[in-house]
Amino acid sequence: MKKIVSLLLALLMVGAVFAGCSSAPATDGDATETQAAADSDLAYVKANGKLVIGITDFEPMDYKDANGEWIGFDADMAKAFAQELGVTAEFVEIDWDNKVLELDGKTVDCIWNGMTLTEEVKAAMSTSEPYCNNAQVVIVKADVADKYADAEACKELNFAVESGSAGQQQAEAYEFKFTEVKDQATALMEVASGTCDAAIIDSLMAAAMVGEGTSYQDLTYTVSLNSEEYGVGFRTGSDITAEFNAFLSKVKADGSIDTIAEKYGVQAALIK
Fold first, then answer.
1. How far is the C-alpha of 1 from the C-alpha of 9, rounded, in Å?
2. Which H/E stretch holds residue 243?
């Protein structure tokens, strides 16, 4: 009996040895490939089947049509880029002041909303090549516009600015008195209602929203406070940035970016 037990134990030990030999140990190369896949933002987005875009209500870049669908120059471009990646575009309205947290926390995959390429933005995320020129402009009621033809005169005004925006940065730079609000659309409402004397918003939005034939016919824009460029932001180190830059070159070459720009009246601001 003891001999049989000993023989069985010996056979089990031999089987274990062969089983160990049949499974090749993981190599450094395998580990590197696994880590690379985990680190790829592009692979992450494709696995999810969607590109989640962080935006605010900002006509003519991102705003809703009568059916509640997000449209605009940036929105249409984002849909085209998502299609190029083989995924769908999903838009999420965010608090602009928290855009970096939203991006790093993977609540969104990119920030694409007429985002000014400030040094602060470029340090916090991977940014694309610029695609549009822009400026921050002062909005006041039309009947007092002649009193505020330069930045010095504007120092007596109380401004509404989007929290965390380029407009807020200009208000701080010029030492204007200001109140932070949710977005640029709210800043315009504050001026229209008389809650604030003025607002600082993007010139592209001002052209679409202020003056005769617009939603705010009694408002106008006066002083241009700076010049700047728009870009798209991705997570730091994201491999989607290079994909977007290649897409941008493609749509410039085939003219499709011009078609979308003309649709929303921003063709003059495009960077060729």
1. 13
2. helix 240-254
Q: What residues does 116 pair with on adjacent strands? A: 230
For 197, the token pair is 């004397």
Alpha carbon distance 71, 51 (integer Å) = 16
Enter the tokens of residue 71: 């449209």
Q: Which are the contacts of 188, defined by CB distance < 8 A and separation ≥ 6?
A: 139, 199, 201, 209, 210, 216, 219
Q: Is 176 helix (H, G, I), strand (E, B) or coil?
A: coil
Phi, psi (deg, nearest 5) at residue 87: -130, 175
Helix axes 240-254, 41-48, angle to 10 degrees: 80
- Between CA 181 and CA 246 the distance in angstroms is 35
How confident is the model over 106-142, as pLDDT tens digits? 999 999 999 999 999 999 999 999 999 999 999 999 9
Contact status, residue 63 vs residue 71, Cβ threshold 8 Å: yes
**Whole-prediction pTM:** 0.79
